[in-house]
Amino acid sequence: MTSDAGRPDEPLVEPGGEAGGPDAETPIPESLAILPLKETVVFPDAVAPLAIGEPRSIRLIDEVLNQPERMLVLVASRDPEATEPPPEQLYEVGTAAIVQRMVRVPDGTVRILAQGLRRVRIGDYTATEPFLQARVDEIVDAAERTTEVEALARNLQSLFTRMIDLVPHLPDELGVAVTNIEDPTTLSFLIASSIRLTLPERQELLEETDLAARLRRLTALCSRELELLELGAKIQSDVQTDMEKSQREYFLRQQLKAIRQELGEGGEGGEEVEQLRERLDEVAPPEEIRTAAERELSRLERLPPESAEHNVVRTYLDWILSIPWGTATEDDLDLERARRILDEDHYDIEKVKDRIIEQLAVARLKPDAAGPILCFVGPPGVGKTSVGQSIARALGRRFARISVGGVRDESEIRGHRRTYVGAMPGTIVRAIRDAGAMNPVLMVDEIDKMGSDVRGDPSSAMLEVLDPAQNSTFRDHYLDLPLDLSRVLFLCTANVLETIPGPLLDRMEVIRLSGYTEEEKLHIARRYLLPRQLDAAGLPEGTLEVTDDGLLTIIGEYTREAGVRQLERRIGAVARRTARRVAEGDASPRTAGPAEVREILGPERIHNEVKRRTSEPGVATGLAVTGAGGEILFVEATVMPGGGKLTVTGQLGDVMRESAQAAVSFVRARAGALDLDLADDFFATHDIHLHVPAGAVPKDGPSAGVTMVTALVSALSGRPVSEDVAMTGEITLTGQVLPIGGVKEKVLAAHRAGIRGVVLPKLNEDGLAELPAGLADEMRITLADRIEQVLATALDGAAPDGADAAPSERS
To answer: Quick check: is 366 catalytic?
Structure first.
């Protein structure tokens, strides 16, 4: 058995002398010895070194060398694992060859050098022992040399020449030989023996008798091999280029480091860049961010450490590397846990809690749903910011807060261009950096107090930040890189909506947090404020007990606010007085009731001035909504001799001035219907002055119209307005009462001021559903759609025919 193990280490020597070369005309005997080959096909005209190890094959070689023609047939075995394959396991077509040389190896095997002559077809086997012998018939190509054959041969020569350039082990001389071969048959066999083919492919070429078909098949195989070689060469070239570039950069860095050390500039620059590169690998930013960072690192390497530009680039890289590009917390979408946390942190505000739970439910069912932009609107101290902290705790997210109140520079939001001295990113980027995650809960406080001037409009910059359709590619002017804000849960707070630009307000879902009643404040103080202030004062448990009456005293006599911020300060004052006593050595338990509270806090701070202010005709109590919540306001009217002039004071806005003019016009036109006993020329000979006290506070809005009419009628008729009635509503020239906003806030303001009677526009009846159940029971709410109904209730204390009472009054 034989195998093509390559050329032997020792030179092949001819036993008995030099053999002559084969002759193309050498006749092929009818019967020849058959030498099986393992995974090898020898083509005509090819010289093949073969290693012979099987005893049967060695005897065959010895016998062949004793013959004058020294000829045998080389044929491939179908089974490469068989040591002595029988005839049925051998292919039918082989190559007649002459053994040119032979050498015996000390291990008992022999090496031969055989040169193929011509193809033969094996017929009947005449012997199987001591080796195989069979009858053979020479095979001759059937096709003649045609133009097609010439074209195929030239194309094959071109392909093989290109292959030689890509295969290192093929010598250039082989390409020259192929180019000079004119016989297509010889060309095909030479190329087939030189390229890498499988055994079936080689045998297929050997058996093909149609010269054109063989050339086409060989062209396809060469094209495939050439494509693989070119692809491999490209891969190798790319790898080599990358390696050379990396090595070149390394050597250049080392040389630059050595030059700087030689110049006395130190070697810290290179170490600094390497540290930044390590940080960049740890951060693992998106590809676009990494590309920008690598570009800046290359700039930093070329800059001397003492240059000003070096510090600018270094600071920029520090900012890029400080952003948590690939960091995000996993949301906790346990609805029961979230509800429990919200209830622990906040009393009441059920609408807000329900909205948060709904959003968590949506996120649980659709994780990729875009989060809403929530805006909590309400007076100070009602818990807007703390609600945001509770939401972050319920979700398991990081919490960050920025305040945009008073911001007038757009760069505060978007950052400054790096061309400016001292440039830095905007508050959005800094908040993301501080949160340490790309999906925090970001609270934007006081969004209603942003302004604009020559430096830009920051509210316009917030349009992109608070738009889920745009903020996935938010670009800060300093970084100038896309920052994905789509996973951030934005929460905004505001006291009023009127100052928020329309386009910005349109991007937010408004949730109102109104003020609290006394009962609600009592619960909040007992559950949250008092324990927090006792802990802040360092008081041991059981040292101070504040009774409910004591808390109600603080609420009613020392605070008048929609929220509970002042209430917490007053409770803190009581706790600190107790802490002082304990620090002085008296640690006995104390109980603080109304008397103790008044002793600690001093004289009563809040006075009920409604009775005093409305004791004279011409003064009516109105209701308004400000940034601090609902408030009561007084409208004063006086009439004096003059020339029919109207004076309006109290720092009123244009809308409120127009309401005053409408009120005067209505009273003049309906004086008779209002039972005012006035002379015909009364308004021509008298001046009217309307004043709204607290003149240092700007006021505006149409809802004081009915209050102005009531005060004017009271002044003209001499009848005082009821001290226990407050009113609100817009007036028309025909006497209709139009709806207003902020019903809940205004009713709460009346309740805080000790007023139990409120007149509201009939069209605001739906707003009564927002009132707390206990508050509705305490108040007498009258709904009116005509000014006559308002006057009857405010001046006479009883609703006339046609006026509707709220359900609390009917009950």
So the answer is: no
